[in-house]
Amino acid sequence: PGKKVLIVYAHQEPKSFNGSLLKIAVEELTKQGCRVTVSDLYAMQFEPRATRNDIVGHLHNSEEFNYATETWEAYKRGGLSKDLVEEQKKVQEADLLIFQFPLFWFSMPAILKGWMDRVLVQGFAYDLSKSYDGGLLQDKLSLFSFTTGGTKEKYATRGDVRYLLWPMQHGIMHFCGVKVLEPHVCYAPKHVSEEKRKEMLTAWTQRLKTIWKEEPINCSPEWYFK
Amino acid sequence: PGKKVLIVYAHQEPKSFNGSLLKIAVEELTKQGCRVTVSDLYAMQFEPRATRNDIVGHLHNSEEFNYATETWEAYKRGGLSKDLVEEQKKVQEADLLIFQFPLFWFSMPAILKGWMDRVLVQGFAYDLSKSYDGGLLQDKLSLFSFTTGGTKEKYATRGDVRYLLWPMQHGIMHFCGVKVLEPHVCYAPKHVSEEKRKEMLTAWTQRLKTIWKEEPINCSPEWYFK
Question: If you measure CA to CA, which chain B residue comes closest to A115?
Fold first, then answer.
């Protein structure tokens, strides 16, 4: 109650299963008295490409463009493009970040990866010696909620689904100091019965009811690779 | 000699270290008599977002947009957008795919992830029961060549760099039936001496001289997680 949640959502179709998971989350969290903000990336036509356009005004080094350096410098002088500033404001205010997306190639869709690449710049999300447990986005929680095309069994035959969470959970969120809650995976919603799909939606609502009591995972290699 | 190579390149700045690695690869492979094609994603302003625009003409199901289904159907009837058809042609012709990029957040920059998301559609790169060793892009090799911001030591303290290669090498290339050569990692070129940088460039040329004699890795969990 009173908590702020940012849901970064990456699906093109409101009628999709991801769309339903988003709707449910907004409803349940709002009912709890949370303030929920949604970044609907496709609807916003969010730009995923990291380019010179992200810097307003002069470059620090116009002879040789380096994105990391330029966005860091631009951040410090308040010279990042408007869309990035807005997303950073949402992140700054949030107690919990939920990423809702369909798994594309063992990872996020490019539009969501672009959100990570462009929003979490040096100076804002981390700094020279401020990373991992010292990252700049401490006291925040994150949760990766995604659907897969393949079944749970199919993933299990080729290793663990946790393997693919390493770059996202550890490499991004943990690096910025954000704590990570257990991921929420809905396996192959397209290939199960309508009844099973309803069960999956109910399970998501149920989980969200006690989300604020959850303990973050221990985001170290042991959790991922045992 | 006579081999065809596609280099998919994702850096904004030709003068960058990635730009040098690209230049060197084009020179060395051309010298060997290979036919080299480069997809310079930023220069092409390559679109990373997976949207309805990738399908020319009518949708299979316009009531509820599903990207995977629509691109699959569009591929079968020759209805994918021109930029995708062109990239697929390049992939089809290539014996070796080299991905050259700076590591962004333990993964590819969004513009390159978008290339994977949009180019490697069902029907073209894989199909219902045609994946992994049965994938549709067999008899091809791939190589991930990237630079990092952090030093080798920094990566080593938090697990192995191989962990982050799982989604890219196994989840994408292996899934499509493409064999994977050892990755080529240049650690922290921004933070080493000019001499060390030159050594790294020379090492890349040297490696490419015998690239056609290399054996692919065994792309199973053991390689990544021991």
Answer: B110
